[in-house]
């Protein structure tokens, strides 16, 4: 068996510092997505209190998720918790939700760059 050398087009050694960071970010996203999918599965199984708890747990990590806020509103409405449902819908459709999500993403990218010395 012959070893093949592959030239990296990333340029410098510091570029390789990104690999663990990107892997960690992918795992965090996968973990967040797992919480979201768990909440949806509970909702579909008509476990509304469980779905509510799971959406709230997901929103602790991703508070600007309009999709999760909207789904939480549905779950709350199905439990006759109309005030909470209306609040979730308002937050899901508020422009600040979009800008908060965008700012958090940008802040995470900036911090990641500082952590690897870029």
The tally of structural domains comes to 1
Which structural class do the helices and strands define? mainly alpha
CATH class: Mainly Alpha
* Global outline: flat
Largest sheet: none
Q: Cα distance, first to last residue?
A: 38 Å
Radius of gyration: 20 Å
Helix-strand topology string: HHHHH
Runs in which pLDDT lies below 50 for 5 or more consecutive residues are none
CATH superfamily: Tetratricopeptide repeat domain
Helical segment tally? 5
Tell me roughly what share of residues is in helical segments: over 70%
- Calculate the mean pLDDT score and round it: 75
Strand percent estimate: under 5%
CATH topology: Serine Threonine Protein Phosphatase 5, Tetratricopeptide repeat
How would you describe what is shown here?
This protein has a single domain (16-115), classed as Serine Threonine Protein Phosphatase 5, Tetratricopeptide repeat (Alpha Horseshoe), CATH 1.25.40.10. Helix content is 74%, strand content 0%. The protein contains 5 helices and no strands. The two termini are 38 Å apart. 15% of the residues are buried. The mean pLDDT is 75.
